[in-house]
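User: Just a sanity check before I run the rest of the batch. Below are the structure tokens for the first item. I only need the designed sequence back.
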């Protein structure tokens, strides 16, 4: 599965994170530093596993416990963003 930012979302990196505007709902959202990092990695790559691997390299090293926590956090973030219509998931070609 490949992730992509919804066509209805306008976003911008800021000093404090990432600001999102959903043009269909009028909702504004500001992501904290962690959410912003996940968002930017998804915007660049669109692959859940790549994001998890990158964050593990940055923060977890070889620790299985930390890797599992990062995976859970990334999965929860992505699920929330899909539910809110900010991200969409499609079958990779």
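Assistant: Here's the designed sequence for the first item:
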């Amino acid at each position: 599965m490949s992730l992509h930012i919804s066509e209805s979302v306008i976003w911008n990196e800021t000093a404090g994170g990432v600001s999102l505007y959903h043009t269909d709902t009028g909702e504004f959202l500001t992501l904290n530093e962690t959410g912003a990092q996940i968002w930017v990695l998804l915007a660049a790559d669109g692959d859940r596993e790549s994001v998890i691997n990158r964050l593990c390299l940055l923060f977890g090293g070889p620790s299985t416990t930390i890797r599992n926590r990062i995976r859970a956090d990334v999965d929860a973030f992505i699920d929330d963003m899909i539910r809110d219509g900010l991200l969409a998931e499609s079958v990779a070609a």
